[in-house]
Amino acid sequence: MNAQAELSRPGAAPGARSFNDAGVRLGKAILRNRKATIGLALLLLITFVALFPGLIAPYDPHAAIFDQQIGPSSGHILGTTQVGEDVFSQLIYGTRLTLIITVVVGAITTIVAVLIGVTAAYIGGMADGTLSLLTDIFLIVPTLPLLIVLSTYLEGSGTVAIIAVLCLTGWAFGARQLRSQALSIRNKDFLESARVRGERRPYIILVEILPNMLSLVVANFLGSAVYTVATAAGLQFLGLGNSGEITWGTMLHFAQQNGALESGNVFWALAPGAAVALLGTSFALLNYAFDEITNPALRPARRRRGKSPA
What we know:
Distance between the termini: 50 Å
Strand content: under 5%
Number of domains: 1
CATH architecture: Orthogonal Bundle
Number of strands: 0
Number of helices: 14
CATH superfamily: MetI-like
Structural class: mainly alpha
Shape: elongated
Order of helices and strands: HHHHHHHHHHHHHH
CATH topology: MetI-like fold
Radius of gyration: 24 Å
């Protein structure tokens, strides 16, 4: 009877509206949170640089036509490399591939985490046990040694290999979080209503469950992006990427290999390191908005701090 009453309400299963409402809440949270706004502005700036590097970089990043290992000057604001390439141009052009790796890995690991975590929680039974066991295995495996072994085996394969390695090792923590959240809403009335209507499992998961977990899904993507920025740069710094590709990590590798700090060409090493930190910071700052949504207790606490005592 309750299910029938639920079905008779107008808009009882508004999947699209659920996503829209969740998106509006996320947008308002970002605009209310100064740190999140700064993070979004930084990310948009980095995205613009990645999309239009030719508008900013003064030279071809592969053009080895300048004096070697010179420090900052009017013609080369970050100096040149060991073969005479402009460091600033490499920094600008390296933004695109670095951002592509970050976004692709963050998106793929989030999708895998959603598929495994939410599916395990909703279906339950043997499927839940099997998927949870798989998640636990990837959680307890030492990540850094596994990354190094896999990257060494695929050394020289380039961006695709880095993305594959990071996706393989980066989904488990998010899957565990999403499973816990999905378990808490698995028996809610609106899901019972969808079952009574005869909706299939994929519809219930995608249209009924995920809109109620949107903030956690986005937070999982942001957390994965922060992890990817640092880890990908670290692997490339160790020389496990493709040395022919220009990323911030490969710039750090060549700067270290050629003694940039010892020779006084410090910006060759400091600039890509600062860029990695800036990109990671932009994703981390955005997380403040999603913390506010996933933990409602933060909202009144912030308002109380903003008020003067009576």
